[in-house]
Amino acid sequence: MTTAAPDLMHALAEPDAADLARLDAWWRAANYLTIGQIYLRDNPLLHRPLTAADIKPRLLGHWGTSPGLSFIYAHLSRLIRETGQQAIYLAGPGHGGPALVAAGYLEGTYSEIYPRVSQDEEGMLRLFRQFSAPGGIPSHVSVTTPGSIHEGGELGYVLVHAYGAVMDNPDLLAIAVVGDGEAETGPLEGSWKGVSFINPEHDGAVLPILHLNGAKIAGPTVLARKARDEVRSLFAGHGYDVIEVEGDDIPGMHHRFAAALAAAWGKIKSIQDDARNGTWDGVRPTWPMIVLRSPKGWTGPEKVDGIQVTGSWRSHQVPLSGVRDNPEHLALLEKWLRSYRPEELFDATGAPVDAIRELAPRGELRMSASPHANGGVLTQDLDIPDFRDYAVAVQDPGAGRAESTRRLGELMRDIYTRNPYTFRLFCPDETNSNRLGAVFEVSDRGFMESVTDADVKISRAGRVMEVLSEHNCHGWLEGYTLTGRHGMFATYEAFAMVSASQTVQHGKWLQEARNLPWRAKVPSLNVLLTSTAWRNDHNGFSHQGPGLIQVVLTQRGDVARVYLPPDANTLLSVADHCFRSRSYINLIVIDKQPQLQWLTMDEAIEHCERGAGVWEWAGTDDNSTDPDIVLACAGDVVTMETVAAAQILRDKLPGLRVRVVNVVDLMTLVRPKDHPHGMSGTRFTELFTDSVDVVFSFHGYPGAIHQLVHGRPDADRFRVRGFIEQGTTTTPFDMTVRNKVSRYHLVIDAINNSGRLPRGAADLKTWCESQLARHERYVVDNLEDLPEVRDWTLGV
To answer: Would you place residue 755 in the very low, low, confident or very high pLDDT band (cuts 50, 70, 90)?
Structure first.
């Protein structure tokens, strides 16, 4: 596109009488359909007077924000129709779901996707009856809503989703309607900084529309009560060109908003044209935003029972309650519905009249039909190098160390090179810290603010995204993948809990999308947790917490995947699988510090394909009969402690038959009926037997393993060690001691739980206890771990 011609800009800013009639008719129809969804179970076109039998038994939904959302939608449709602009609509006040459902219905998309909800009286009745009802659709702008990539049920994420959607998407305009209640949330407050990361050369644009209607569910909102100049200064300080529209006079508001939208779009096109034709000076653009002030519940009942409703918090949800039992309220509802003159909006069959149809753009330009809002249809497979080329050479298990995540960084470096517009890493200022810095060999950090000579690998052309906000990074990746691109969010393990609720909400979206055949699968949300609980000894207790594993385990099996690779080669194999997958949440947990390497690449691939396996070289079990004890492990540090414990038992208690099982895919522990990765009962028995006690050393909270093996044979025989909230600034080994998962604790557990104890077991137990006491004295006196622990390798 090129900068808009003056005559087009004039036409956009000053709608003629025909355009005004179309805008008004469309808006009235959308409001009518919104109210119908909240209230009606019959008589959709009011062919007869309303009766109590026409009203739903449960009145659910949110009216207050809906007329404003529909007003904006109508004007955007006109802009798209006139300009051909590709656009998607993200409703921050997602509880205005009936407004966006109405929009898709009026555009025809809804009936195309759901043919039973046809554009006639029968279809309209189905539209009304299904809303927020058993067997129907949710009340929010959910995954069932055509054109949506943002539900809005949990407030705070509309801007991060919008900014993620336009990265590497140069022709897309993402309209992000920010509710004034949502604007009070922490994630939203931090997300205005997205303007500092969008490059008009290769990114699209976000148009934030801050919708100030004055109230939230039960009181006023902060920004609505602030002085106008304070609001302008706030957003000007973030770097926005603030355009304001205010009023409740309908014809005047149509004129004013059309002019504001035209000005904003014209400014966006000018910025993009300058950047793409070589006349840009490189200074961060001042992108436009609109502040729209309109009454909450606009066009609804002014007063109910003598109390002000429109313009107040009382219009937030259902302005008229008790309609089935209150004849006065029933009469008010009918008057309200008839005020939109439905006989002018729908023909004799119940279909929208031509004036309404004419407002909508055509085909995929309809916001409810945009392929960008069904990103799987645009997704291209990543061109991924052969991960085997990045392997760590392993001659003998546990003989050498490497920084495992550094190899992953090298793989991602080359993915960046091969996929210059469809892959990004999102990380809160920790890319180098997490040993992923190889990506900087091919891409800088993206940044649109000023850059100094002292900055390293920072430029406006960069595509590695670093901002010190887990919410922004997580949300940007969500918007990026939902519109069809691939990426990874990498963060310190403890601080993944900052954005854990986003992980949950995205999982819910993916889960529900699987039930909709028209929703194409999108690239997975890949989350890498490093700087883990077990090796954040220099930061201390605040940085020690493996909680996200527990969070992801609660997601449904169709979506949730948790991987705990113990070394570099298993990490590479897992990452390759995750980058190729669709519509999952892939959680990968591994530390960044130098760690022992266990498996050759071929062994790692086989191990990852199985998800779990016996490490015969680590134990003394010959498989001729059941072992005396099973030592199982999942996670890198605890794997090292388990192998070390097995070595102690082999050397000091050689008569004890010990089997070592390592789990890399945590979901294999679950029964097959509970998760698609769950191993069969036969396979589970091959690894863990049916009756032998298992000492399980786990990276996360012990309860997770008990949850996963529930229903397996004699699940009570699993004795789990893991993180038990014992932490501080201390040595690496002391972290395992404090949480009772050290090699010495595991040996004692093996002795205590074994069904057969060879001679010498009591002496070995005493020796382990003395080693723990020796450790406690040594770390205090020497400020480091015992040499035989610190420098331990298998065979030493």
So the answer is: confident
E strand segments, 569-669 = 585-589, 595-596, 612-614, 629-634, 658-663
Radius of gyration, alpha carbons of the chain: 30
* Burial class of residue 276, CB neighbours in 10 A (0-12, 13-18, 19+): middle
Q: Are 415 and 423 in contact (CB under 8 A)?
A: yes
Tell me the percentage of the chain whose pLDDT exceeds 90: 94
Structure tokens that stand for 496 in this block? 């993944």
Cβ count within 10 A of residue 273: 16
Q: pLDDT band at residue 428, thresholds of 50, 70 and 90?
A: very high
Tell which residue, 752, 748, 695, 688, has the closest CA to residue 719.
Answer: 695
Residue 258 pLDDT > 90, yes or no?
Answer: yes
Position 526 confidence tier, pLDDT thresholds 50, 70, 90: very high
Q: What is the DSSP letter of 599?
A: -
Residues in contact with 237: Cβ distance below 8 Å, sequence separation at least 6, in sequence order:
none
Q: Which domains does the chain have, with CATH numbers?
A: 10-373 (3.40.50.970), 387-595 (3.40.50.970), 619-790 (3.40.50.920)
Report whether 772 contacts 742 (CB < 8 A): yes
468 CB-near residues (< 8 Å, 6+ apart): 428, 429
CA distance linking residue 65 with residue 216, whole number of Å: 9
Question: Which amino acid type is present at position 467?
Answer: V
Place of tokens 């997958």: 581
Burial of 238 (0-12, 13-18, 19+ CB in 10 A): middle
- Sequence-distant (≥ 6) Cβ neighbours of residue 320 within 8 angstroms: 39, 301, 304, 329, 332, 333, 336
Distance CA 198, CA 287 (A): 10
C-beta of residue 150 within 8 angstroms of C-beta of residue 158: yes
Strands 658-663 and 718-721: unpaired
**Do the strands 612-614 and 658-663 form a parallel or antiparallel pair, or are they unpaired?**
antiparallel
Interhelix angle 17-39/66-83, nearest 10 degrees: 140
To the nearest 10 degrees (0 to 180), the angle between helices 761-782 and 743-753 is: 160
Confidence check: pLDDT of 796 > 60: no
Backbone dihedral region for residue 384 (phi beyond 0: left; psi -120 to 50: alpha; all else: beta) = beta
- 500: its two tokens: 């854990």
What is the rounded distance in angstroms from the CA atom of residue 767 to the CA atom of residue 764?
Answer: 5
Compute the half-sphere exposure of residue 96: CA atoms within 13 Å on the CB side of its CA: 34
